Amino acid sequence: MTARILITGSRSWPDPQLLADTLLDIWHDATQNSHQDIVIVHGGADGADTLARLWAEGHGLEHEQHTAAWTCPCADTCPPGHRRQRRDGTEYCPLAGHRRNQHMVDLGADLCLAFHHNHSTGTADCMRRATAAGIPIRKVIA
């Protein structure tokens, strides 16, 4: 059986070594607790997500990337007129990251590793969703 490790983290995560050491500890713990391996589940964003993906690839481990659909049409549940515009003129849905977080949580995980830095609201959102789904959280702060 493979342990699913959901990664959420700040785009400005400042400590790649702390992230790598934490993932190594989790991998070790999982294999000691009758899991054959781990899969890293992440949102594909800059920062902690990218560092976790690179770590997984470097260790020959599977990873699942679930990218937010920022420029896609809004969901039926989005409030009217909430889309925002970037400096380059493109529009995006500011709730796309929340929908992506919920999707990753809905897929299930054995643990949510939260690499929280600079009061990241996206990381906090994913932690709340994981808690509501009964997924244990290990919060790492830098």
TrEMBL record:
Entries under InterPro entries matching the protein: YAcAr
Ranges where the YspA cpYpsA-related SLOG domain occurs: 4-71
One Pfam family of this chain: YAcAr
Name by which UniProt lists this protein: YspA cpYpsA-related SLOG domain-containing protein
Record lineage: Bacteria, Bacillati, Actinomycetota, Actinomycetes, Kitasatosporales
